[in-house]
């Protein structure tokens, strides 16, 4: 007993658990019999019926494992408990299994059936944990079982189980790399998953198994970008790093023009290069000039997907996780246009406050960045100042950054800082500082002399290391302009008496030798002294003595001939063969004998050739060819598994590969998916209601809408193209279609296949064509991009408010009366008024809004019925005052002759008052009849609803038809996406409402208006000043424009006589408009106050701030146009 | 990603190991020990080491080395950040992160490590989720457990992992609902010998302690959010609300957490609360020196400066000191050459002074540099940047929570060069 505990102490591993008898390690040479005895005890405990005993035993065993002791002989006893009911015992058994299964494969198989059973458990967490353990057991024989389990779990309805499946993929891959192909299939499937939970894990699996299969990302690119902000931190890092590589292969270099300028400007560099290099450079330059000219011809336009990535990663710079911040920073560094990279500096500087290890890594990366983009960090110069308490490695890195940042303007401050550093007690740091001063001096000509003087002063420092380092640096500096500084050389010559550091001595000797004509008197004397101490010198010093001797012999042989002979003789018998070699070589060269060949004639040229001054370069130069933030970058060497950061492509690959085609999966597994969705709903919607930032569902369809709108333009482009090149490709088309699993798709794949199949020539033609069309479509898409960005911003805001709405709704369902609506005291009142309005609304609106008044709901239904025949007139009759703006839903060409437009008819949608009526106008321009026009596969944000229009059975060629559908947009401007189907084709379309259509007019008197307005002050009020257009200063136009922009009704002014005594007609007419949002019935109040000379003020009061802000924007636009 | 983890104490004993993939022998740590030998201070061990077959990424925390073994390319910060997260979790569970604590709770720590990583990739790192799966030890529970044979492992399955707000555990219930926020600001400064400020900035952090039932949705707004220059948030904060309205809107995790870190915009002049008059002289002959330090209040906004402390790392040659403080106590550790003068409260009427002689190793040359002084201080009820919380609103729950905000200003890396 006592012996064993003493042994424990020795190992430094005494712990309260498993102490003292069980802490002994049988493998460490203990007595076997006693071990078995002890383990018998544990076995007994494991075999007992009591869970508490089992638990105790398992705890001891795990403690042994934790301390690295061998507990493998307990395997049979432990594995029996794998089916134990007690959850803690079970967990510990799992821990044990995962640790030892590899060593005891046969026995481990006993446990497999338990896990297989677990995989079928109705509880998702049990399924997940079973899969986790099963896949962690590294037993080759169960590979097929694992494969099966992973495949099954990958289509599990629980996202958590799918996540676990993603985790299991790399485990299986490392166990049996031959499964790669099958695993890639699973990865592909999981990549298509739309939950944030899975995204990070599956990308991690992708990176480990098949990082080269970049093509798998195309379809999921936009989704990943949009989900990114809601993925957990660790997943974010992996995704961002992967997307950086992806973007490098798919998009064009945003800095293409600038980088050319840079190259051109840095012509200085070649100054140091040899002639050959220059030639090469010139060639290169020519090439670059060509490409530059090319670039000029075709201005760079950023791909919207490229922009999407930059935009969606930017907020993550605010992450608390340093790894995420670094990942975004490197993404921006590698992908962003030069002007935008600056945003990362602040975040990186922030990380310098973190743990020293984080600082270490960040500074390494900052050092690399400062070489390429110095300006970015210049404002933060002082953040890199060094504290005496910093660890040395941090100090050195900060010094590196400071040196890189030095320029003419800040050099004096930096040098002043350096001066304090030189006095530091940390000598390694001082040496680094001296090097840094040297580099500043070479880079910035103005301060060269100052630095040199400062360094010379350091030569009298008491610390030898400091002096030595200074000598080395001075040597380098002097090489730049030796003639000016012979006094310094003299001064240094004197130092040879004192300095003992070999490197410094060698440097001084080299200097004297090299510039002996500047110090003709001293040089021979130095050689004399050196000759005396030759035998006691270090090797590098000896070599330099020989060098010095040789040079002096050549320039001043009179004085130094004998000395040189002497030195060479000493060297001849040196112990070091390098020195002996050198001596022999030099003797042959410089001392002319009859044997010496032609070389000795050139001895002078050989030794006294003009040597180029060294370039003091940062060790971080050119490190940026490694992806920043990677291990390889840090080590400046390729680490295993490092994926090269590809160069930008010359021409961007086809962007349409990222278009998402939905029918594929709806076709194959629509039923499954739907089921899944239903099941997921409960726990998702639960949390969704409350969580603003995690709007996975929202962002999902965000991506959908984004891609759709983008694809719209592309489709149209490709459509026109295919028209041109239609000749004879149709049959190919057919074939191709068959090959591709007879997908019903848009044009895109056809186009692809065409280019695949067509001959090279055609390909070239294609390329040229697509270039042209690309540049067109790019410019288009750029515009789109802007609008997209706007809308997506507002969308996201919306979604928050949506969440609020949902909350309210839920509250109304679950705990009816009290849900805080901003102000707690008004809570109840508001709630009531909301309810009131719902009941109240329909009645007043017909009276008030004259425009819509005669359209009773019944009429609408009538119209719906009539729609087949001829209702082109309908919009005209419905909205006489403001011509309804119609929007294109399906273009004639995209729709293969079918053209669809829609407008918001601004009439109550009779089947459901909470829906916005959308009037669709179909025109069949094709030569054939279109049959059974209907909607399918409606994709909506949660909460949104759609009432489909009745199917149009036949639309003869050349005819038109009208139908009305209702959409509940949930008071958001998010698009409703659906497919418009004919008998033969399906078209993806989306309807996105302008904010002004999300409301319906209500009648309010001026007094009511003012009262309501009074309650919607503060945050709910948005005011904007504007100048009215000259054409828009009369009452009529103002009213018309406002009502055109938003579905509101005018509040008659002064109609309420009770309130106010007769007022003189106001100088500044005030126009008031009122409405309620369609879904929630929140009041929307708009006031336009006009002043002199077209000055005006627009005020919008709305409980929904998002709607308010957007409405202000829209009305402002309408009034100022 | 992370292959294995070794916990090593300062004397070089490996006292815990965990492997997430195949077992890697302890000998891999030898490369680390080699590097540790070379570096004099433990802080100076390079965080990333390359060995023939592996890469070692190490952090030094609480006098312990967390050494992780990596085999392939990985973002080093990813690993470093994760190792710190492990240390944070241990601290969160057991109150501190030290060798004794880990050894005492070795099974729990091991279970935690098991849950935090799966195959070397982070799985559950949110403290709220982990606590649902593995209950942190409390005295009461350990007593109950020994009596009933109960366990520390939650028998409930962690539902947090499934939700979209993974940082909050479900079914939180308190009788006293309270939410406290500590606004802690630190002044980082380098002050010149002459008393001019070379560099100063304010870094702030808002630490929250939220114990609210259900699913509260909080909104914290500031009187002067424009002060904040750079911010970083806990994942719970809705970034878009911040962008649009400059308010912090979030569903908090349960318990203690760091809500945000911020940096005060550099345009604002930083108030330096104290001034230091010092003279440290070493004499060429006689191997001795003199030291005289006085501290006085400068810009304290009318508050008292507390917890004042001066730390000086003396040159190696200083053998001992003979100093008398007018206030507080002064100690000198001749092994580490660290002089600590613990002053306490700063009395503006009677300024604290430390004066006396330093005795040096005879024959040693006069030190080149005078050591710099590191100042520690604390001012209660003051955020030196002037940042003020304007209000805290709660939505989503009916009860009225008890709310509180506390301000503290501290010295961060406050250094006076001499």
UniProtKB/TrEMBL annotation, chain A:
Main subcellular localisation: membrane
InterPro entries: AP3_beta, AP3B1/2_C, AP3B_C, AP_beta, ARM-like, ARM-type_fold, Clathrin/coatomer_adapt-like_N, Clathrin_app_Ig-like_sf
GO aspect biological process, one term: vesicle-mediated transport
Residue spans of biased composition, Basic and acidic residues class: 669-683, 821-833
Key words, A-Z: Cytoplasmic vesicle, Golgi apparatus, Membrane, Phosphoprotein, Protein transport, Transport
Localization, UniProt: Cytoplasmic vesicle, Clathrin-coated vesicle membrane; Golgi apparatus
Ranges of Low complexity composition bias in the record: 702-720
Occurrences of domain AP-3 complex subunit beta C-terminal (ranges): 827-974
Recorded topology in the membrane: Peripheral membrane protein
GO cellular component term of the entry, any: AP-3 adaptor complex
SMART domains, A to Z: AP3B1_C (SM01355)
Region (Disordered): 1-34, 262-296, 666-845
Function statement: Subunit of non-clathrin- and clathrin-associated adaptor protein complex 3 (AP-3) that plays a role in protein sorting in the late-Golgi/trans-Golgi network (TGN) and/or endosomes. The AP complexes mediate both the recruitment of clathrin to membranes and the recognition of sorting signals within the cytosolic tails of transmembrane cargo molecules. AP-3 appears to be involved in the sorting of a subset of transmembrane proteins targeted to lysosomes and lysosome-related organelles.
Family: Belongs to the adaptor complexes large subunit family.
Protein name per Swiss-Prot or TrEMBL: AP-3 complex subunit beta
Organism of provenance: Betta splendens (Siamese fighting fish)
Lineage start: Eukaryota, Metazoa, Chordata, Craniata, Vertebrata
UniProtKB/TrEMBL annotation, chain B:
Gene3D superfamilies named among the record's database cross-references: 3.30.450.60, Mu homology domain, subdomain B
Domain of life: Eukaryota
GO biological process assignments: intracellular protein transport; vesicle-mediated transport
Keyword flag GTP-binding: no
Keywords assigned by UniProt, alphabetized: Cytoplasmic vesicle, Golgi apparatus, Membrane, Protein transport, Transport
Pfam family, one: Clat_adaptor_s
Keyword Iron tagged: no
Main location, first listed in the record: Golgi
TM region positions: none
GO cellular component: clathrin adaptor complex; cytoplasmic vesicle membrane; Golgi apparatus
Locations listed in the record: Golgi apparatus; Cytoplasmic vesicle membrane
Membrane topology designation: Peripheral membrane protein
InterPro entries: Adaptor_comp_med_subunit (IPR050431), AP2_Mu_C_sf (IPR036168), AP_mu_sigma_su (IPR022775), Clathrin_mu (IPR001392), Clathrin_mu_CS (IPR018240), Longin-like_dom_sf (IPR011012), MHD (IPR028565)
Residue intervals of the MHD domain: 176-417
Function recorded in the entry: Part of the AP-3 complex, an adaptor-related complex which is not clathrin-associated. The complex is associated with the Golgi region as well as more peripheral structures. It facilitates the budding of vesicles from the Golgi membrane and may be directly involved in trafficking to lysosomes.
Family label: Belongs to the adaptor complexes medium subunit family.
PANTHER family listed in its UniProt record: AP COMPLEX SUBUNIT MU (PTHR10529)
Protein name (Swiss-Prot/TrEMBL): AP-3 complex subunit mu-1
Protein source organism: Betta splendens (Siamese fighting fish)
Gene that this polypeptide is encoded by: ap3m1
């Amino acid at each position: 007993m006592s012996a064993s505990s003493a042994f424990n102490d020795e190992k430094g591993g005494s712990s309260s658990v498993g102490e003292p008898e069980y802490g002994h390690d049988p493998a460490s040479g203990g007595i076997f019999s006693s071990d078995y005895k002890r383990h018998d005890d544990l076995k007994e405990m494991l075999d007992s019926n009591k869970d508490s005993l089992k638990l105790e035993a398992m705890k001891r065993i795990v403690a042994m494992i934790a301390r690295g002791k061998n507990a493998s002989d307990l395997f049979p006893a432990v594995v029996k408990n794998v089916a134990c009911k007690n959850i803690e015992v079970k967990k510990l058994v799992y821990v044990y299994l995962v640790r030892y299964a590899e060593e005891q494969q046969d026995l481990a198989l006993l446990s497999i059936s338990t896990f297989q059973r677990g995989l079928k458990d109705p509880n998702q967490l049990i399924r997940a944990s079973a899969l986790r353990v099963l896949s962690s057991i590294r037993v080759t024989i169960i590979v097929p079982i694992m494969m099966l389990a992973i495949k099954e779990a990958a289509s599990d309805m629980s996202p958590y189980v799918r996540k676990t499946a993603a985790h299991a993929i790399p485990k299986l891959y490392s166990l049996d790399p031959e499964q790669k192909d099958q695993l890639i299939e699973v990865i592909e499937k999981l990549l298509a998953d739309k939950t944030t939970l899975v995204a990070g894990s599956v990308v991690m699996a992708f990176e480990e198994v098949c990082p080269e299969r970049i093509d798998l990302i195309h379809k999921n690119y936009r989704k990943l970008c949009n989900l990114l902000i809601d993925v957990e931190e660790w997943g974010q890092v992996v995704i961002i790093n992967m997307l950086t590589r992806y973007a490098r292969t798919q998009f064009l270099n945003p800095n293409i023009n600038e980088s050319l300028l840079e190259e051109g400007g840095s012509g200085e560099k070649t100054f140091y290069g040899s002639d050959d290099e220059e030639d090469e450079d010139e060639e290169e330059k020519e090439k670059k000039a060509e490409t530059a000219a090319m670039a000029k011809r075709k201005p760079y336009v950023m791909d919207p997907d490229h922009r999407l990535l930059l935009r969606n990663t930017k907020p993550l710079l605010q992450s608390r996780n340093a790894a995420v911040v670094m990942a975004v920073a490197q993404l921006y560094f590698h992908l962003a246009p030069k002007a935008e990279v600056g945003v990362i500096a602040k975040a990186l500087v922030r990380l310098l406050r973190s743990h020293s290890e984080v600082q270490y890594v960040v500074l390494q990366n900052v050092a690399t960045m400062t070489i390429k983009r110095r300006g970015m960090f210049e404002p933060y110069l002082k953040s890199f100042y060094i504290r005496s308490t910093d660890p040395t490695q941090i100090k050195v890195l900060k010094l590196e950054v400071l040196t890189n940042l030095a320029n003419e303007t800040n050099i004096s401050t930096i040098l002043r800082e350096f001066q304090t550093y030189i006095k530091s007690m940390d000598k390694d740091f001082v040496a680094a500082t001296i090097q840094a001063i040297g580099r500043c001096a070479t880079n910035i000509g103005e301060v060269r002399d100052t630095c040199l003087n400062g360094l010379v002063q350091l030569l009298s420092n008491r610390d030898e290391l400091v002096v030595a380092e200074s000598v080395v640096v001075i040597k380098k500096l002097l090489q730049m302009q030796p003639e000016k500084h012979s006094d310094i050389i003299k001064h240094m010559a004197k130092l040879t008496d004192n300095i003992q550091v070999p490197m410094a001595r060698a440097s001084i000797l080299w200097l004297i030798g090299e510039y002996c004509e500047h110090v003709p008197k001293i040089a021979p004397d130095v050689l004399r002294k050196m000759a005396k101490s030759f035998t006691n010198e270090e090797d590098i010093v000896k070599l330099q003595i020989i060098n010095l001797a040789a040079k002096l012999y050549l320039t001043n042989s009179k004085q130094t001939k004998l000395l040189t002979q002497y030195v060479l003789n000493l060297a001849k018998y040196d112990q070091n063969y390098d020195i002996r070699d050198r001596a022999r070589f030099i003797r042959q060269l410089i001392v002319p004998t009859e044997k010496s060949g032609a070389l000795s004639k050139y001895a002078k040229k050989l030794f006294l050739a003009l040597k180029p001054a060294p370039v003091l370069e940062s060790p971080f130069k050119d490190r940026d060819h490694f992806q920043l933030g990677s291990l390889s970058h840090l080590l400046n060497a390729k680490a295993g598994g490092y994926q090269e950061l590809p160069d930008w492509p010359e021409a961007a690959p086809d962007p349409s590969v990222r278009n998402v085609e939905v029918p594929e999966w709806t076709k194959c597994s629509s039923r499954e998916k739907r089921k899944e969705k239903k099941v997921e709903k409960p726990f998702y919607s639960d949390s969704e209601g409350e969580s603003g930032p995690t709007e996975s569902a929202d962002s999902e369809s965000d991506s959908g809408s984004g891609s759709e709108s983008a694809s719209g333009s592309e489709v149209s482009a490709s459509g026109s193209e295919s028209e041109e090149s239609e000749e004879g490709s149709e049959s190919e088309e057919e074939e191709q279609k068959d090959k591709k699993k007879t997908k019903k798709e848009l044009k895109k794949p056809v186009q692809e296949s065409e280019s695949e199949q067509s001959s090279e020539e055609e390909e070239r033609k294609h390329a040229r064509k697509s270039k042209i069309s690309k540049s067109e479509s790019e410019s288009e898409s750029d515009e789109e991009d802007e609008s997209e960005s706007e809308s997506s911003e507002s969308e996201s805001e919306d979604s928050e408010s949506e969440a609020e709405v949902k909350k309210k709704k839920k509250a109304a369902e679950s705990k009816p009366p009290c849900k805080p609506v901003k102000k707690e005291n008004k809570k109840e009142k508001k709630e009531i008024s909301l309810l009131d309005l719902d009941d109240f609304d329909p009645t007043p609106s017909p009276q008030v809004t004259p425009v819509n008044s005669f359209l009773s709901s019944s009429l609408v239904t009538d119209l719906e019925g009539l729609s087949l025949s001829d209702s082109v007139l309908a919009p005209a009759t419905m909205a006489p005052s403001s011509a309804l703006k119609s929007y294109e839903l399906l273009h004639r060409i995209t729709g293969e002759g079918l053209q669809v437009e829609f407008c918001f008819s601004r009439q109550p949608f009779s089947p459901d008052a909470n829906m916005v009526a959308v009037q669709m106008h179909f025109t069949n321009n094709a030569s054939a009849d279109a049959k059974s026009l209907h909607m399918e596969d409606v994709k909506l944000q949660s909460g949104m609803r759609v009432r489909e229009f009745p199917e149009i059975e036949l639309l003869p060629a050349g005819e038109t038809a009208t139908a009305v559908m209702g959409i509940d947009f949930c008071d958001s401007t998010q698009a409703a996406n659906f497919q418009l189907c004919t008998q033969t084709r399906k078209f993806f379309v989306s309807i996105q409402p302008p904010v002004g259509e999300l409301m319906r007019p209500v009648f309010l008197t001026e007094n009511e208006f003012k009262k309501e307005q009074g309650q919607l002050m503060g945050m709910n009020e948005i005011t904007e000043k504007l100048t009215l257009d000259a054409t828009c200063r009369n009452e009529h136009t103002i009213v018309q424009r406002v009502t055109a922009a938003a579905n509101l009704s005018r509040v008659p002014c002064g109609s309420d006589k009770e309130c106010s005594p007769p007022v003189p007609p106001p100088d500044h007419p005030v126009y008031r408009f009122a409405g309620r949002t369609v879904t929630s019935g929140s009041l929307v109040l708009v006031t336009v106050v006009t002043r002199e000379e077209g000055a005006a003020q627009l005020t919008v009061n709305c409980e929904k701030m998002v709607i308010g802000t957007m409405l202000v924007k829209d009305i402002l636009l309408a009034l100022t146009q | 990603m992370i292959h294995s983890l070794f916990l090593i104490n300062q004397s070089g004993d490996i006292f815990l190991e965990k492997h997430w993939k195949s077992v890697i022998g302890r000998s891999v740590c030898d490369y680390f020990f080699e590097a540790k030998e070379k570096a004099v201070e433990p802080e100076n061990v390079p965080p990333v080491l390359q060995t023939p077959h592996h890469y070692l990424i190490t952090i030094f925390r609480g006098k312990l080395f967390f050494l992780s073994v990596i085999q392939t390319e990985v973002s080093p910060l990813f690993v470093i950040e994760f190792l710190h997260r492990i240390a944070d979790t241990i601290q969160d569970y057991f109150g501190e992160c030290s060798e004794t604590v880990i050894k005492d709770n070795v099974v729990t720590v091991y279970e935690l490590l098991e849950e935090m990583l799966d195959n070397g990739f982070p799985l559950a790192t949110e403290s709220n989720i982990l606590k649902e799966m593995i209950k942190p030890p409390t005295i009461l529970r350990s007593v109950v457990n020994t009596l009933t044979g109960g366990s520390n492992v939650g028998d409930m399955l962690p539902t947090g992992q499934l939700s979209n707000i993974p940082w909050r555990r479900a079914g939180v219930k308190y009788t006293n609902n309270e939410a406290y926020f500590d606004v802690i600001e630190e002044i980082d400064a380098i002050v010149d010998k002459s008393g001019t400020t070379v560099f100063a900035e304010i870094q702030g952090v808002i630490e929250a302690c939220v114990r609210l039932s259900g699913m509260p949705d909080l909104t914290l707004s500031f009187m002067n959010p424009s002060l904040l220059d750079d911010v970083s948030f806990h994942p719970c904060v809705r970034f878009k609300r911040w962008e649009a309205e400059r308010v912090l809107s979030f569903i908090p995790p349960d318990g203690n957490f760091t809500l945000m870190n911020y940096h005060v915009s550099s345009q604002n002049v930083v108030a330096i609360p104290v001034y230091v008059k010092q003279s440290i002289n070493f004499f060429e002959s006689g191997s001795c020196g003199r030291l005289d330090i006085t501290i006085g209040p400068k810009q304290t906004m009318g508050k008292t400066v507390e917890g004042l402390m001066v730390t000086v790392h003396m040159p190696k040659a200083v053998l001992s000191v003979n100093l008398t403080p007018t206030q507080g106590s002064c100690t000198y550790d001749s092994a580490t050459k660290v002089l600590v003068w613990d002053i306490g409260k700063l009395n503006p009427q009677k300024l604290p002074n430390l004066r006396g002689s330093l005795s040096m190793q005879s024959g040693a040359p006069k030190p080149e540099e005078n050591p710099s002084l590191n100042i520690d201080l604390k001012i209660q009820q003051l955020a030196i940047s002037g940042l003020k919380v304007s209000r805290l609103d709660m939505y989503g729950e009916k009860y009225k929570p008890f709310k509180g905000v506390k301000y503290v200003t501290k010295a961060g890396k406050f250094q006076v060069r001499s």
